Every structure is written in C-alpha cells, then in structure tokens.
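[Meeting: bench + compute handoff]

Bench side (C.D.) handed over the final construct sequence. Compute side (W.E.) agreed to return the predicted structure before the next meeting so the bench team could plan truncations. Sequence as handed over:
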Amino acid sequence: MCNMVAEVAISNHLTKRNGVWQYVRRVPEDLRGSFPFARIQKSLRTSVERQAREAALDLDRLWDRRFAEASERNGYARHDGELPLINTDSWTWPDWEALAAWFKVALAEEDWQARLSEVTGHVLSTDADLSRIPWRDERVIRDHLNREKLLKKLSVAEYGEQRAAFVRGYVRRLGITLSRSDPPFLRFMAACHSAELSYLDLFRLRESRQGGLGNAHPDTIVGPWRQPRAPQGSGAAVWAGALASNGSVSGYAIAGSASADGWTSKTLSHCIDKWIGNRQAAKQAVRDHHISDMRKTVAMFESQAGVRDIGLITRKHVLAFRDALRTRSDYKAATINKKVSYITSLLSTARNAGWIDREIGTKVLMQVPGDEGVREAFDNQQLAAIF
C-alpha cells in the first residue's frame, strides 16, 4: 500500500486537519486583485492519502490554469509584452535544468546591474581591484543574509511551497508559466533552491570584496525559450516556438513558415517605441495610460496568435484576435475595435519605418451597434448631484 501511495505525485498544498485532508493554497500576490479572496481552502473529504493526492493534483491543474488565465488578462505574461506563453509539455529534464541555470544567472545579473552605476575602471581593468566593488545598501544586505538562513533550513518541498511564487515571477519574463503539476516540478525546485544558494554565495563574495566578478548574462543561457535568428540576408523565417494548429506555441523552431514574409527581428514592442518616437518628434501628446493599454493589448495579441516577430503576423492573426475578443462578455464592439486598432496601427508604423512591406488590409474592425455609444439621460437626482 505504501508503494501505491508513493506512485502518486504529491501536491505542495496538502495539509491534514482533524484527520481529514485539506487543500490550502494562497493566491499569488500579483493576482490578488483578480480574485475576491486571498486563499483557497477546500476539504477533500477523505482521510486516505492516495485519494487526497489525486484530488489535490486535479485542483493544482485547475488553479494553475485559472492563475495563468488571470495573468494573461492582466498582461503579465511579460511586463513588456514581448513573448507569448511557451508550452512546456514536451520539455525534458535538460530543458528544466537550463531554466534553473538561467534563474541563477538572472539573480546574479540583477545584483550586478544594481552595483554597475558605481563601478569604476579599477574594477573593470584586467588587474581588477576587488576592494573597489560597490556595496549594496544595508537593507538589501540584511535581506540577503536572512534569505540565506531561511534557504539553508528549508527542505526542497518547503522551498517549493514558499519560493515557487518568487521563481514563477522570474521565469514568467521568458513567457514560461510554472505549474506544480509539471512532472519535474519538485526536481526543478531543488535546482532553483541550489541556484539561489549559489547566488547568495556570489553575493557574499561581492559584499566582502573577495570576488564575484564576471557573471554570465542571462541571454547566454541556451534553452527552448530562445529564438534563434535567421542568417543575415536570408529570406527564411525562423520562429523559436513552432506554431501548432490551434495557434499555441508548441516547440522549438520552424523554418520557411508559409505564413511569413521573413524574419525581421522586430516585435510589436519595437513598434510601440517607434510610435512614441514619431509622436514626440511631431510634438504630439503621449499619454501613459494609453501606452499601458497598448502594451497590455500587445501581450494579449501575442499570447493569442503565438507570434512575436512582426514579419510573421498575417491578416488571419489579426482577425483571429478580433474574434477571440468577441467571445468576452465584458468587451463591447467599440472596445474590441480599439484593441484591434492598436495592432493595425502598430503594423502601419512598422510599414512606414520600412520594417515590413505587407498591409493587413481593411474590414478588420467590427461594426458598432447604433446605440452602443449613446449615453442615457441623467435623471433628476444625478443632475442635482452634478450641479
């Protein structure tokens, strides 16, 4: 019987109270505004561990999906909206191991960037003077020391429970959604546990001015999230996430995609920057809330289409995005048209910049019902409040 229990993966959200197994899970901090509660708690109505494990894994999948959907709605797949979500179903352990290596290097790079503005040539020269490595402020040092104490005490399972949200926040930058139901989750947590401790060793070297120079840049870590570029001058389009029939990202690369005119190495985020530059050059207003809405829409589009490079975006992608927005009950036609117009305007900006040659074409917007923009008359009570 013990062997049968061991065959079932265990969720990190299981706890036993009064002999009955419970599923208890916190809503990620960055998604608290999307849910009317901060914690999920559900009785699994069993005292049998195997049954509890199976039920908890089902709930893990359910809530991982709901959190991923909330992240996408909020535009959190990437803060700058550059990458679509990556499907990790086909990943093998070396892929997860590479991701843990990227996580370690990303931590080291962030710390180095925080020091870099105060770094002088004494540190950068071939005979580096380690005594000139800039220190971090006291609060950051104390936080790192406390973290090191905690991490050394935690088991891997405890690390997975307490630090998964922290790790998830980093890998999300690559378009990766980390799920507890992923088969190698616990082993990946062990690799991240080790990565954090290694980073803290490096941090200690820098603070004691004994070393820690020359960490690799995160972009040098090769993994399935990377997008190899087409050879200079070739017409082949290379896409790091091969598009599945449903438009999701399913693998590494395809070459010579029939839906693409060619790789441009430009994204819609580049188009936003160009659009802002054009507006500023013409001395026209650039409003922060408008840019924020535009970036969130780009993140939604790229997640829906599974396309990043503007050279691969076709009219079909834009129409599919429009139709996907139509399924949302909280969007009226005018809102849908505004979001679709963001994409078409950015592609027009790209065309004017000479980055692409293709037009998306007309008739991509919805017809707005005649009464949708009509405001209802104020009643007497509202008029009294206004005046």
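W.E. noted at the follow-up: The beta strands are 14-17, 20-26, 39-43, 238-239, 254-255. C.D. will use this when planning the next construct.
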